[in-house]
Amino acid sequence: MVAAMSDNAPQPTTHFGFRDVPLDAKKPLVRAVFDSVARRYDVMNDLMSLGVHRLWKQVFVSQLDPRPGRSLLDLAGGTGDITLRWLEGGGGPAILSDINESMLAVGRERLLGRGHVAGLSFLVADAEMLPLPDRAVDTVSMAFGLRNCTDKDAVLREARRVLRPGGRFLCLEFSAVQVAALAPVYDAWSFKVLPRLGRVVARDAESYQYLAESIRMHPDQATLAGMMGRAGFERVRVRNLAGGIAAIHSGWRL
Description:
Layout: E1 13-16, E2 19-22, H1 26-37, H2 41-49, H3 53-64, E3 72-75, H4 81-88, E4 94-98, H5 101-113, E5 120-124, E6 137-143, H6 152-162, E7 163-174, H7 183-202, H8 205-217, H9 221-230, E8 234-241, E9 246-253
Parallel strand pairs: 3-4, 3-6, 4-5, 6-7
Antiparallel strand pairs: 1-2, 7-9, 8-9
């Protein structure tokens, strides 16, 4: 006989920045952040990285290796940076996906405004539960989105599930600084300067504070590589960028 769960039993929690929140509260909180910053998202990334994110994305897309015969699922694709670079780099059909409709609307407007119609589709979807069949795409990308997901292991399992055998998943994300001398400067920038810039530029210091905190709560390079291995990816590799301020993780479905 199974005992009934007590109403006083502890409820599962997760982190939202440095705060613990009920598990089912994180997605609405994250959605509110990106609803707030959607129209200023590229400015946000410029502020967070001093513009270097644009170079990181060039490196990332070169590792995606866009080719006409390959398809892409761009998870947490937001304003369409990666999808745009994929298509303009000669890549094949692309699905721009994001859980946040406000972000996806910006990406749709951007891509259609650049004349990208053929071979392009848009999908409002939770990366933890993708409404796509098994073995649907050749490449899955995720840039600066994984740290905002509640169940990162589920995202990794789904990314592998929708990949065809021989396909590859690549994740670009802020990570753990590997150069000791950079750490205090980076911390000062993240927690003292960035929220103030958010207040001035976007009139939204709280969202920028969360984004800085979310970076520190994200798994470091070795931990994320281990998670990818447990999700079934093989030949997992890590490439640090800017001393580990960001990193590219890649793995194959073989």
